[in-house]
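Please, structure for the following, as tokens.
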Amino acid sequence: MRRVGVTDEELLVEVALTRLDHPDLDLEEIAELVVRKAGPDAVLEFASRNLAERGELRGAMFAAAVEHVIRVVLTLRGPSD
């Protein structure tokens, strides 16, 4: 998952596959693994998307990238029962 321009659906698949490999981790830990695996260009892209969504100009890049992954998962997962 080194290329930039990852769609939300591709990101969700990556999270699901990572969760299969690490079933004991919580969502934030899974998101951190996905972000680390994605590489620096994707970290910048994810952080930029997240900060734009929040209407902010600055933030910690890695933390903002992880938050983006979590936001995508929760959005695409839909409402919980």
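The mean pLDDT is 88. Residues 1 and 55 are 27 Å apart (CA to CA).
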